[in-house]
Request: fold
Amino acid sequence: MTEDRNEDINIEENKKTNQNKKLELVGNIAFIIFMIIILSLIFITVQSKLTGQEPTLFNHRIYIVDSGSMSPTIKLDSMIIVKESQPSEINAGDVITYYGHNTSSRVTHRVMEVIDNGKSFTTRGDANESDDPLALEGEKLIGRVVFAIPAIGRVFRFLGTKVGMSLLVTIAIAWIAIPKLLPKDSKENS
Reply:
């Protein structure tokens, strides 16, 4: 009877150990994916700062939302990913990003109406009660918003400052140096 009970306890311990290993594996995979995404975003941001061009990766551009005109759909300080698109690919209801009154400003609004297969569009911010006063010319289109991450824009704005870049470099150096400076565990030596 005691053997059966010990066997049951061992089986339960093995199940818990296997579950813990699976959870640890899932956690490690999620962490690696998160780090790849963050490092990619940091690389793209640094690349755009150094070259002075818009951040682009595989025909997708990344922007930080500077106004609340698309709230609650896309909030202030969200990061949006915009797939470069042709005017003929845009439909009513799509959220698009386009050049504003000059090429240095970008606007993200919803398409209310497509005119003449994309030669122009009627647009409106979701937070606005009326359409934008002027029709958008199709050649000002950058693309269609495919993804938005709320609030991450604050982080990227900070990383774009001298203090933010300095902090990022310091963290990277510390991440590499500290493990080399710390004494090895006694477990590794035995």
